[in-house]
Amino acid sequence: MQQHERPSGRRPVPAHPSRRPRVRLALATAVAAALTGTLLSATAGPATATDGTYASRADFNGDGIGDVAFSASGAYVSGKKDAGQLVVLYGSASGINTSSGTQSFAQSTAGVPGSDEKGDFLGTDVKLDDVTGDGRADVLAGSYENDGNGAVLYLPSNGTKITATGSRTVSPSDSGVSTTGYPNFGANFAD
């Protein structure tokens, strides 16, 4: 992870997610696949655009049609620069259903832990996995929360959609990870 040195000997801050030297699929690939109604597995991996936007695809509601979750980690939310947010789109037999069911999650969303803060970059990395074992994918989103300490936000599927009910955040201290330096906990998940 690249670091930028702050003036006056202050601790370095993580580089913007779009400056990470990782090559992934284009966001358009994820959206195009969902538009075709193709079932996409949770292990298909994330896609990124060059602006730090990440997308992953899986089946959130068990209908056998691929759904898409993507982030805009550098989004202004509630007037906070680079707070970040997540968007969930559901697939249908005729493509992405944009007339209903589109969801957006930020830390200011009711039921989501935390608050929107400048530089959190919520959605720095996004993974979809069946955390609960119910056959439906849940959303895991990393961030640079708390000045580079990092955190992972969990948004569960309730069987029909992704929900903030039951969501929680896991921080370095919750996991026994030291916050000495910049752990960037959850900023990059293993692919």
Summary tags:
191 residues, mainly beta, 4-stranded antiparallel sheet, 3 helices, globular, disordered N terminus
SSE blueprint:
Layout: E1 3-4, E2 13-14, H1 27-35, E3 47-48, E4 54-58, E5 67-72, E6 85-92, E7 95-97, E8 103-105, E9 125-129, E10 138-143, H2 145-148, E11 151-155, E12 168-170, H3 172-175
Antiparallel strand pairs: 1-2, 3-4, 4-5, 5-6, 6-7, 6-8, 9-10, 10-11, 11-12
Overview of the structural elements:
The chain is mainly beta. It has one domain (3-175). Helix content is 9%, strand content 26%. The chain has three helices and twelve strands; from the N terminus they run ββαββββββββαββα. It has helices spanning 27-35, 145-148, 172-175; strands spanning 3-4, 13-14, 47-48, 54-58, 67-72, 85-92, 95-97, 103-105, 125-129, 138-143, 151-155, 168-170. Strands 3, 4, 5, 6, 7 and 8 form a six-stranded antiparallel β-sheet that branches. A four-stranded antiparallel β-sheet has the order 9-10-11-12. The longest helix is centred in the first third of the chain and has 9 residues, at 27-35. It is globular and about 50 Å long. The two termini are 16 Å apart.
